[in-house]
Amino acid sequence: MRYTAFSELLPLLAVGSIPLVKVEKIGQSIDTSSLTIENSTTLSSPVSTLSFSASASFEVRSPTRIQVEFKEGTFKPPEIKSSIDLPESINIFGQNINLSSIQQSLNPLQNAVEGIARTISGQPPLKIPIPGERTKSWLLITYLDKDLRISRGDGGLFVLVKEGSPLLDY
């Protein structure tokens, strides 16, 4: 996803403005053979990477419109990084803060972090059914080519670029 005006995603996008937290990827996979969609998000920090997704089924209503029904949310166990890798400095409210001394003090924790990583990595994902009336939505495809999809839904505007597309280089 390169752009959205979907108000429910704006808090998630704002997470990327929190120091040391980055929105790595917001994506969507569509399986036309099983008529399913998976919306996924990956966040990263110097300590871990967190991924979660929502799966849905869809029904084609016309060549440009689909009906979507969300079924389940999935939270994958966090991937604990084998080393804590802080940037040299961060900017908070216009103040540049040097983190190199903090990085040096974290080095003794590396063995503990590696042990936690081994324990968590074997855990299964947490799956949660999505209940209620907000599970149903629609999507109208406004523009579609081999690299780009622009769509509108009852939740807003979405611009998605296909993985591997040269458009991602801009």
UniProtKB/TrEMBL annotation:
Alphabetically ordered keywords of this record: Plastid, Transit peptide
Residues making up the signal peptide according to the UniProt record: none
Residue span, Plastid lipid-associated protein/fibrillin conserved domain: 2-160
Entries under InterPro entries matching the protein: PAP, PAP/fibrillin_dom
Glycoprotein among keywords: no
A cellular-component GO term for this protein: plastid
Domain of life of the native organism: Eukaryota
Subcellular location: Plastid
Matching Pfam families: PAP_fibrillin (PF04755)
Major site of localization recorded for this protein: plastid
PANTHER family reported for this sequence: PLASTID-LIPID-ASSOCIATED PROTEIN 4, CHLOROPLASTIC-RELATED
Name this protein carries in UniProt: Plastid lipid-associated protein 3, chloroplastic
Species, as recorded: Sesamum angolense
